[in-house]
Design goal:
Pfam families: Glyoxalase_6. This protein is α+β, with helices and mostly antiparallel strands. It contains four helices and 16 strands. The protein has one domain (3-173): 2,3-Dihydroxybiphenyl 1,2-Dioxygenase, domain 1. It has helices at residues 15-26, 74-86, 138-148, 196-206; strands at 3-12, 29-30, 38-41, 49-54, 65-69, 90-91, 103-106, 112-115, 129-134, 152-156, 159-163, 170-173, 186-192, 209-210, 221-224, 230-233. The longest helix is centred in the middle third of the chain and has 13 residues, at 74-86.
Length: 237
């Protein structure tokens, strides 16, 4: 058994506003379903949605997870940056330096993301949302490879990356040391292919930890991966 990556979910003070921003940047439409919050349909080959769940959490540090958006040309990169700024993004300094060829921005709630320069071979063929770049250990890359059934496509010098067999967005981990918990961040959400409780037990056997002992009101179970990042196993969809 395995889990499907159902959504990459943002902690959001204003889910509707944040969904409007990302819909405008990415050109993704809103999903019409019973998601607890707001969700956007990606059409991405990796098969996930973007979710925006209401949360009172306060952002106290740089996010551990962020998106890398790709560009086909310098003009395309500039257009993406301009569109994001028009929608409410701001430039962000995460130590990239003045000579960086990628552009670092933050959305209206401070979530960082990068607009990557053209010609990036690692993200070639991944689509507009080239990567979900995560701060994390090699062990957590192995964990998610086993959890999702996505093969490793990079495993060198403590850095790992996985990708759906169907292609699309890669999920990458940059190796230690880990950044502090930012408080407000992005989280992965999974829909099991079978019995959710059986899938929870499988994830626990792979190294996950249970964060709440009982099912939540929406039927989801909250777990943490081996690096301590929260994720949700949803009821079967």
């Amino acid at each position: 058994m395995s889990s499907r990556l159902f959504a990459v979910s943002f902690d959001a003070h204003q889910p509707e506003r944040l969904a409007h921003f990302w819909s405008g940047v990415l050109g993704w439409d809103r999903a019409d379903d019973s998601y607890d919050g707001v969700a956007l349909l990606s059409g991405n080959a990796a098969g996930y949605r973007l979710g925006f769940r209401p949360s009172p959490a306060q952002k106290i540090a740089q996010n551990r997870l962020h998106f890398d958006l790709t560009s086909s040309s310098l003009e395309d990169q500039q257009e993406t940056v301009a569109r994001a700024l028009d929608l409410g993004a701001q430039h962000a300094d995460v130590g990239q330096g003045p000579n960086a060829s990628h552009v670092v921005l933050a959305d209206p709630e401070g979530n960082e993301f990068c607009v990557i320069e053209p010609g990036n071979n690692f993200l070639a063929g991944c689509g507009f949302v080239g990567a979900l770049a995560c701060d994390g250990s090699r062990a957590v890359g192995y964990f998610w490879s086993a959890a999702l059934g996505w093969p490793l496509v990079w495993d060198q010098a403590e850095e790992t990356a996985i990708q759906s067999p169907n292609g699309g967005t890669k999920i990458t981990w940059g190796g230690p040391p880990l950044m502090p918990n930012p408080g407000k961040d992005l989280h992965l959400e999974f829909a099991p292919d079978g019995d959710p409780q059986v899938e929870v037990e499988r994830l626990l056997s792979l190294g996950a930890k249970r964060l709440d002992p009982a099912h939540r009101g929406d039927g989801a179970v909250l777990l943490a991966d081996p690096d301590g990042n929260n994720f949700r196993v949803l009821r079967r969809r």
